[in-house]
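User: Quick sanity check before I run a bigger batch. Here is a single chain. Can you write out its predicted 3D structure?
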Amino acid sequence: MSIIQCTLYSLKKIAKFTYQVRLKLVNNITFIAGQYLFLLINNNKYPFSLASSPLNKNFIELHIGSSIFNQKIVDIISYISYKKNILVDIPHGNAWLRMNNYPIMLIVGGTGFSYAQSILFTIFKQQPNKKIIFYWGVKNVYDFYNLNKLNLINNKLNNILIKLIVENHNNIWKDKTGTVLDLLKHYKTNIKKYDLYMAGPYNMIINIIRFFNIYKNIAPKNIFSDITISNKKP
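Assistant: Done. Predicted structure follows.
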C-alpha cells in the first residue's frame, strides 16, 4: 500500500445520491480488479471500491453515494470538488479477481456496483468467454446507474446472465422486487464450482455468506469479500 497524490479528473452525478469521481494519479500505481482505496480527508479514512479496470491508465474511478441523502457523502464530494490535491491510500483488499478458469457469481448491492464494474471490464478485456452470473440489488429504482455500461458488457461478453432487483416496490419498476438474497434462494443451479465475489452493505453480505455456507454448502475458500462475519470493513 502507498499514499499517493491525485488531482480531480472529472466529477459528475450519475444517480439521485451517487457521484462518479475520476482521479488522476500523480504517480503510477498498480492494483487488481476488485480492490479498494482509502480517501484521506482531514485525518479520516474513507474506503471506496475502485470502479475502473487496472488496464485503464488514464484515471481511477470511484462511485461515491448512498440510497438516501447522506451528509457525509455531500461533505466528501464538496472536499473533492475544491481540493487541488487529494491523497489516497491504495491498494487494499483481498476480494480481487482471480484470473482462473472457474465461472464466477458476482453479487453486489447499491454502489457495490463499482466493485463489479472493475471486475466486469477486466474480464471483458482478458477472459471474454468466462461464464458470469451477476446480481445487483438496490433499495430504490433510482439507485441504479451506469446501466448503459452494463448493457455494453451484456452485449460484448459471450456468457453472462444479469439479474437486477429492487427492494422497495415502485410502479416504474416492472421486474423482480425484494433483496438479492431472495433471488439467490430461488437459484437452482449447482454453484459449488463457482468463485463467488461480493460487495455491498455489511448486513447484506453477511446474510448471503451465511446462506451459502449453511444452505448451499459453499466452502469459504470460494467466497471472496472484504466483508466477513468476523470483520467489518470501515
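The helical segments are 71-82, 113-126, 147-156, 180-185, 202-215.

User: Great, the batch can go ahead then.
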